[in-house]
UniProtKB/TrEMBL annotation:
Database matches in InterPro entries: Cry_DASH, Crypto/Photolyase_FAD-like_sf, Crypto/Photolyase_N_sf, Cryptochr/Photolyase_FAD-bd, Cryptochrome/DNA_photolyase_1, DNA_photolyase_N, Rossmann-like_a/b/a_fold
Cofactor note: Binds 1 FAD per subunit. Binds 1 5,10-methenyltetrahydrofolate (MTHF) per subunit.
Cofactors that this protein relies on: FAD; (6R)-5,10-methylene-5,6,7,8-tetrahydrofolate
Residues the UniProt record annotates as site (Electron transfer via tryptophanyl radical): W323, W376, W399
Name of the protein described by the UniProt record: Cryptochrome DASH
SUPFAM superfamilies the record matches: Cryptochrome/photolyase FAD-binding domain, Cryptochrome/photolyase, N-terminal domain
Origin superkingdom: Bacteria
GO MF assignments: deoxyribodipyrimidine photo-lyase activity; DNA binding; FAD binding
Function (record text): May have a photoreceptor function.
Length: 485
C-alpha cells in the first residue's frame, strides 16, 4: 500500500532546512504539498483595518509562488486553496487517501485552535497528524530548563542558553518530491481574489521612498543574505549601524523572510558562523545571533504565557495600569499626525513601505503607550496590519515589553522623544526625508519645531497647524527631564 503524506505549509515557506517537510519526503512514498490562504486572516479586525495589510499579503503570495516553483523543480506540485485550512486539509486527506498530515507547530492561540480543529477532523477519518517544531534557532527540547522555569529576563535566558545549549544543524533540500498522478493544483490567488480593493494595492515596483523592495520567497531571502553578508560585507558593521534609520543596509532586514519561514534562523546562524571563519568574527557578527536569541525568547514567552500577551494587562497581569481608548488620538498616531516629527516620520515610513527600523518601532510604541497612555494592544494590532515582517511572537512580546507589562526588568522604562530624535537623527535627515514640509527648518530646531515663532515659520516656508500639525501632547517635559535609555 502506498504511504501518502499531506504536507501543509504554514509559516515555513521553504524547502531548505524544513524539518517537517524533510521528514515527510523521507517517510512517505508520495507527498502532497498544500498551502491554504485563510480568508479570516485578510478580513478587517475589530479596529476597522485589515489584519494583514496589502503589502504583507503581496509578500505572502510571492512567497507561495516561489515555493510552488521550487517544488515543481523537484518533480512535485504545490496544491493551493482558499478557505479554512482545518476543513480543506482534512478534506484533501480523505480525498487522496492520505495516511498522515505533517505540518509545522505554531504557538499563538488562533493557530493552535486551527491545529486542534484539524486534529479532531483527521481523527474522525483515521488520519494521523504530526506537528514539527521549527520556528526557532534553538529547539525547545534542547533548552536546559522547562518552560515553567523560563527566565523572566532575557539576559538570564541568553546566558543560560549560550552556555548550555547547541544549535541543531540545517537539513538539506529533498532531492525529489513524488506526487500522486491525479491532482488539482489550483491557481495562485491575486490580491483581488483575496478581496483587496484597487486603492489598497501596493505599487508592484515597491514604494520609491522605501529602503528595500521586499520580494517574497526562499530565493529572495537567500539572495538578501548573500548581498548583505557576502557581496556588500555589511555584517562586519552591523552593531554600529543597526540603529540607523535610512538606507537598505543599516540592518540585515532578514526579518521579513524569517516571518514567513522563507529562510530559517538556523540557516542564518550557519551563514554567520561561516562568515566568522572566512571574513571576521567580531561584536557585529555576535550581535546578529544575539538578535536571533531575542526572537527565540519571545517565541518561548508566547509558549509559556499564551493569550496573556494579547491582553492590556500583559504577561505581568498588571491590572493597575489604565489605558485610554481614544480613537482620535490613535488615528493621529497611526497616520503620523502627532506634531512630533520623530514619531510622525517613523509612522509615515511604516505606512508607505510596510517596514520600520527597530529604533523607530521602540520609539513610536513608547510614545503611544507611555506618552499618550493609549491602549497599547491597538498599536500592536496596527503593527500586525502594516508590517511586512510581522511575527506574532516578536510583535506582541515587544509591545508587552515597551508598554511595561512584559519582560522588561525596568517596567517604568521611558523613551524621551526629543533626546531619542537628537541622538539618532542629529541632523534631522530622517525626519526631513519623510516630512518634506520641514525641509528648510535647521537641524537644531527641526526636532522641536513646535517652538518656531511666526517669523521663523515664514522664513522656513512652514505654517504650523496647516502644513504640519501642532503637538497633540505637552512636549515641555522632554526638554526639562531628558530621561530615557
Amino acid at each position: 500500500m502506498t504511504k501518502r503524506i499531506i504536507y501543509w505549509f504554514r509559516n515555513d515557506l521553504r524547502l531548505y532546512d524544513n524539518e517537517g517537510f524533510w521528514q515527510a519526503t523521507q517517510q512517505a512514498d508520495e507527498v502532497i504539498p498544500v498551502f491554504v490562504f485563510d480568508p479570516r486572516a485578510f478580513e478587517n479586525g475589530y479596529l476597522g483595518f485589515r489584519r494583514i495589510g496589502a503589502r504583507r499579503a503581496r509578500f505572502m503570495v510571492e512567497s507561495v509562488q516561489q515555493l510552488r516553483e521550487n517544488i515543481r523543480a523537484k518533480g512535485g506540485e504545490l496544491l493551493v486553496r482558499i478557505g479554512e485550512p482545518e476543513k480543506i486539509v482534512a478534506d484533501l486527506a480523505q480525498a487522496y487517501d492520505a495516511t498522515a498530515v505533517y505540518t509545522s507547530k505554531e504557538i499563538a492561540q488562533e493557530e493552535t485552535d486551527v491545529e486542534s480543529s484539524l486534529s479532531k477532523r483527521l481523527k474522525m477519518i483515521n488520519v494521523d497528524i504530526k506537528l514539527v517544531w521549527m520556528a526557532t534557532l534553538y529547539h525547545p527540547r534542547d533548552l536546559p530548563f522547562s518552560f515553567a522555569k523560563l527566565p523572566q529576563v532575557f539576559t538570564d535566558f541568553r546566558k543560560i542558553v549560550e552556555a548550555s545549549a547547541q544549535v541543531r544543524p540545517c537539513l538539506p533540500t529533498p532531492d525529489a518530491i513524488r506526487l500522486p498522478a491525479n491532482y488539482e493544483a489550483g491557481p495562485l490567488p491575486t490580491l483581488t481574489d483575496l478581496c483587496y480593493e484597487e486603492n489598497e494595492l501596493p505599487d508592484p515596483e515597491g514604494t520609491p521612498a522605501g529602503v528595500l523592495r521586499f520580494e517574497g520567497g526562499e530565493q529572495a531571502g537567500q539572495a538578501r543574505l548573500q548581498q548583505y553578508f557576502w557581496e556588500r560585507d555589511q555584517l562586519r558593521h552591523y552593531k554600529e549601524t543597526r540603529n540607523d534609520l535610512l538606507g537598505a543596509d543599516y540592518s540585515s532586514k532578514l526579518s521579513a523572510w524569517l516571518s514567513l519561514g522563507c529562510i530559517s534562523p538556523r540557516y542564518i546562524y550557519e551563514e554567520v558562523k561561516r562568515y566568522e571563519k572566512e571574513r571576521v568574527a567580531n561584536d557585529s557578527t555576535y550581535w546578529l545571533v544575539f538578535e536571533l536569541l531575542w526572537r527565540d525568547y519571545f517565541h518561548f514567552v508566547m509558549l509559556r504565557y499564551g493569550t496573556r500577551l494579547f491582553k492590556p494587562s500583559g504577561i505581568r497581569h498588571n491590572m493597575d495600569l489604565r489605558w485610554e481608548n481614544d480613537r482620535v488620538l490613535f488615528d493621529q498616531w497611526a497616520s503620523g499626525q502627532t506634531g512630533v516629527p520623530f514619531v510622525d516620520a517613523n509612522m509615515r515610513e511604516l505606512n508607505a513601505t510596510g517596514y520600520l527600523s527597530n529604533r523607530g518601532r521602540q520609539n513610536v510604541a513608547s510614545f503611544l503607550a507611555k506618552d499618550l497612555r493609549l491602549n497599547w494592544t491597538w498599536g500592536a494590532a496596527y503593527f500586525e496590519s502594516q508590517l511586512i515582517d510581522y511575527d506574532v511572537c516578536s510583535n506582541w512580546g515587544n509591545w508587552n515589553y515597551l508598554a511595561g507589562v512584559g519582560n522588561d526588568p525596568r517596567a517604568n522604562r521611558y523613551f524621551n522623544m526629543y533626546i531619542q530624535a537628537t541622538r539618532y537623527d542629529e541632523q534631522g535627515t530622517y525626519v526631513k526625508y519623510w516630512l518634506p514640509q520641514l525641509a528648510q527648518v535647521p537641524a537644531e530646531r527641526v526636532h522641536r519645531v513646535w517652538q518656531l515663532s511666526t517669523s521663523e515659520q515664514q522664513a522656513y516656508g512652514l505654517r504650523l497647524g496647516t502644513d504640519y500639525p501642532l503637538p497633540i501632547i505637552n512636549t515641555n517635559s522632554w526638554l526639562e527631564e531628558p530621561a530615557d535609555r
